[in-house]
Design brief:
Length: 397
Amino acid sequence: MLNKKTIDDINVKGKRVLVRCDFNVPLQDGKITDENRLVAALPTIKKLIADGGRVILCSHLGKPKGEPKPELSLAPVAKRLSELLGQEVKFAADPEVVGPNAKAAAAAMKDGDVILLENTRYRAEETKNGEAFSKELASLADVFVDDAFGTAHRAHCSNVGVTKYVDTAVVGYLMQKEIDFLGNAVNNPKRPFVAILGGSKVSSKISVINNLLDKVDTLIIGGGMAYTFAKSQGKEIGTSLVEDDYLDYAKEMVEKAKEKGVKLLLPVDTVVAKEFSNDAPSRVVEGSMNADEMGLDIGPKTRALFADALKDAKTVVWNGPMGVFEMPNFAAGTIAVAKALAELKDAVTIIGGGDSAAAVNNLGFGDKMTHISTGGGASLEFLEGKELPGVVAANDK
Ligand code: AMP
């Protein structure tokens, strides 16, 4: 459980409260295409408004690399947040982020007002955790609230540096919820505890696999990363995604699972095609595939095997799709796993952010899960057992 001070422990009446949110949302032609991160930030913002704080929101968006880029302005976020909150979120348009416009907007605030600063990554110092920009941000506020779980694995000015120069730094409701759910799942799970890992690469989840093997009862591996495991066991995997540098590691993990008494489930059949294309003719293969074929999804027997392993689970953590779910013809495996999770009763189901969160939401299973993390990279590092700099810095001071 979280041992940090939260917004429930402080009095913000009449105070200027700088809130680091994660408004790094996908935009297409200036329109927000997935607003889950905005919705997830509302409870904290509403509470601070209700308590009479003067709420100054900040976030990064994309990678402007230290320069103002109009297509990465947070202006559309201010507009949509105003609608979601039912009150104006004034956009402090300012290429310097904390420049004359932002300072004037902050100075003019009344209790319960909300403003949003421009994209913090318009400033090059942001990602270097530089002192000057950290101080500028802190100068706007009496109190700092970190509610940006999606950025918690990074040490930047707006979530780490700034905490040095404010008197009070606490976490918001979203950060608290993320840490409580992920922390309890990993450290104090109701058993059986099953983890499902998928996605493209073993290398990006190497530490997660290792850490979770110390904690789970069952580990399910699907997606592109399963072929490195398959090859390490001598199977022909054709032109499937593989990381030859990790064949020994895959073997080691299979051994570790045996030693720990963890059930490690790998695909027993695969949907293969000759091209990486939704329209490519496909077939289901058990065992070895032909040299010119690549695996793009788990097959029907594997879907049944994984669903069966999930049916008695009491805690499930899922990170990474089971196949190339972006192509409808290779999405069935990911859908089957999402469905199996959605059907669980009395189980805590936690979806790591990124692709698995998008898949679950897009497939319409979002409201059936206990918790969908807003942080892909951050939830992965959490599952690796690492301390996140953003969480550490939001100290009660
Ligand atoms: P990651 O970012 O590592 O979680 O990987 C997510 C990506 O893995 C998605 O874009 C999927 O399309 C991709 N993926 C999953 N299974 C496969 C596969 N069998 N072959 C190629 N890419 C895959």
